[in-house]
Amino acid sequence: MNLLGKEIPSDRLFRIAFHVVLWSIWIILPLINNADNERHYRFSIAVIPVALTNIPLFLLNSEWLIPKVFGRKGIPIYLLSLLGLIVFFAVLQNFMKELLVPHDLIRKHNDVFWAVVPVLFVTAISTGYGFVTLLLRQEKSRQQEQEERLKSELSFLRSQISPHFIFNILNSIVYLIRSKSSQAESVTIKLSELMRYLLYESGDVHVPLEKEVEYLKNYVELQKIRFEEDVDIRLAIEGTPGPHHIEPMLMIPFVENAFKHGVGLIQEPVIDILLKIEEKTLFFSVKNKTSGETAEDKDSASGIGLRNVQRRLELLYPGKHELNISRDGGWFKVELTLKTGS
Can you give the C-alpha Rg of the chain in angstroms? Predict the structure, then answer.
């Protein structure tokens, strides 16, 4: 619900509605029931201020005693405090009745009974309400705490992506500049486009798949310029991005890893990238030829990208992804199936 441009949380809205309904019934119902009896009706009108004192009784128990006293000091202190609250309001209401209600309307018997019963009834309702809301608050707090931990972890994981990627691309530019290649300028321009994506798009929770695909194309094109004919780089994209959205920088670490370990001392290196876009599913595969050395032998930091994206998949697509990483017959292969539909 939006009130004057401010969104009211659903739990607070429920609590407001609960109190409005409860106290409307508490005040109005006796008037309706006693409408046919003048003496009782006059009594119900006279005790309205007394009935209203049950509101602070309710709130003191549910909003203060239960979360503050029970939650922090335990059951004995809570029960003792609750007993004091009951006695105080019973005495207060009895005093108010004697002060506000005409003497001809005051019951001459069971004064103690009628002073205590409404207080006990309201206390019982407020106790049930208070413990339910306490449990709901604790659960909400636990969920918020978990969400904050996940956000912090994702923020850390994303912070690892950009420096790692930029480091690899700067190596490409240095290579071209040293070889005095005429393509150094065009590569630098492409890098600026990629940097713009990193700075202004990748911070979003999700980005249109179209932008991620464009980013992937630019990255591959940059690597083609760098390696020229030395590496057989293949990129196939089947289907159209359409309305799909995706976690930014989700596919590129696999491609980076392929270029990291699929070139160099490998004969006739091949980098084969395939992206299939279906209505509710994405299939992404990257494979490259390998040598006898392992990723750890080549670069102790080379596993950052893969570990990073694996963890992000676990956090952001639980139960909605399948990741297979294999090494077979001189090929290193990564296959990712991602469900993007509901």
Answer: 35
Six-digit token pair at 206? Answer: 């999700």
For residue 274, what pLDDT band results from cuts at 50, 70 and 90? very high
**Which token pair is 47?**
């005790």
Residue bearing the bigger pLDDT, 68 or 188: 68
Round to whole Å and give the CA distance between 121 and 305: 62
Residue type, 131: F
0.70 surpassed by pTM: no
Q: Which of 68, 86, 87 is nearest to 77 (CA)?
A: 68
The whole-chain average pLDDT of the chain stands at 80
CATH code for 181-339? Answer: 3.30.565.10
> Cβ(22)–Cβ(52) under 8 Å?
no
Nearest to 137 by CA among 73, 68, 40, 50: 68
- Residue keyed to tokens 């969400």: 147
* Boundaries of every domain in the chain: 2-143, 181-339
- pLDDT tens, position by position, 18-48: 888 888 888 888 888 877 877 777 877 878 8
pLDDT grade, residue 58 (50/70/90)? very high
Q: Which secondary structure element, helix H or strand E, spans residue 238, and what is its range? A: strand 232-238
pLDDT score for 298: 47
How far apart CA 272 and CA 288 sit, in angstroms, is 6
247 vs 198, 205, 211, 220, 302, CA distance in Å?
Answer: 13, 6, 11, 19, 22
Residue among 113, 47, 53 nearest 88 (CA): 53
User: Using alpha carbons only, what angle is made at residue 319 by residues 307 and 275, rounded to the nearest 5 degrees?
Assistant: 65
Q: Which residues contact 259 (CB under 8 A, 6 or more apart)?
A: 168, 223, 271, 288
Give the confidence band of 7 by pLDDT, cuts at 50, 70, 90.
low
**Tokens 């207060």, residue?**
92
Q: Where are the alpha helices (DSSP H) in 201-251?
A: 209-227
